[in-house]
């Protein structure tokens, strides 16, 4: 392959750009869907992230997440509660949103190394979710523990992760049920 051909493989097609933009918008809409469960609220951002990587692949899923984060960082109200701005990302729970990047990166690297059979994809999304949880929790502890406040990693996990695990696993299953039949239609586009 010559250098020009190698450069062309890194470019995005019009279809890819449209799908990346569409999934950035879908992630925003899913962030606005909030179901209060006691003291916590469950949103569907992670569902959109799972759908994006499963339908678009790791590379394009990653770019849809980056576009979503950029839109929020510049102030558009794309995060949960119709919030936007760098302050949301820099805040105590911003690490969980930034952690979406790890889901896509792990998915992308894993499917390149291991292939894209369904069991591998599920394992990669679960691994990415675990890394997202860990990164977000460390971020939360750091953000919450400024000043006189103190939060242990385990307490942060009890507040920010453990209540969400069953919901996030359900969103993973739901994303697979929806995206698997849609994959062939997108490939034909």
Characterization of this structure:
The chain has nine helices and two strands; from the N terminus they run ααββααααααα. With 189 residues, it is mainly alpha-helical. Strands 1-2 form a two-stranded antiparallel ribbon. The longest helix is centred in the first third of the chain and has 29 residues. The two termini are 27 Å apart. The N terminus is likely disordered.
CA radius of gyration is 17 Å
Overall body shape = globular
Give me the count of strands.
Answer: 2
Q: Work out the strand percent.
A: under 5%
The strand order across the widest sheet is: 1-2
Structural class: mainly alpha
Q: What would a concise description of this structure say?
A:
With about 190 residues, the chain is mostly helical. The protein is about 75% helix and about 5% strand.
Helix and strand arrangement:
Elements: H1 3-9, H2 14-32, E1 34-37, E2 40-43, H3 45-73, H4 86-90, H5 94-98, H6 100-114, H7 118-144, H8 153-160, H9 165-188
Antiparallel strand pairs: 1-2
Helix pairs in contact: 2-3, 3-6, 3-9, 6-7, 7-8
């Amino acid at each position: 392959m010559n250098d020009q051909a190698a450069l062309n493989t890194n470019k995005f097609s019009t279809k890819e750009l449209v799908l990346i933009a569409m999934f950035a918008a879908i992630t925003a809409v899913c962030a606005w869907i909030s179901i209060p469960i006691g003291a916590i609220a469950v949103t569907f951002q992670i569902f959109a992230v799972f759908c994006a990587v499963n339908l678009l692949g790791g590379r394009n899923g990653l770019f849809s997440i980056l576009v979503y984060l950029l839109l929020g960082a510049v102030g558009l109200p794309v995060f949960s509660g119709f919030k936007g701005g760098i302050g949301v990302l820099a805040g105590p729970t911003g690490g969980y949103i930034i952690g979406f990047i790890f889901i896509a990166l792990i998915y992308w690297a894993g499917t390149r190394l291991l292939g894209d059979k369904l069991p591998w994809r599920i394992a990669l999304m679960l691994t990415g979710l675990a890394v997202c949880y860990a990164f977000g929790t460390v971020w939360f502890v750091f953000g919450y523990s400024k000043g006189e406040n103190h939060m242990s990693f385990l307490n942060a996990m009890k507040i920010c992760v453990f209540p969400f695990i069953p919901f996030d696993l359900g969103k993973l299953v739901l994303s697979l049920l929806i995206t698997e039949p849609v994959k062939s239609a997108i490939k034909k586009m």
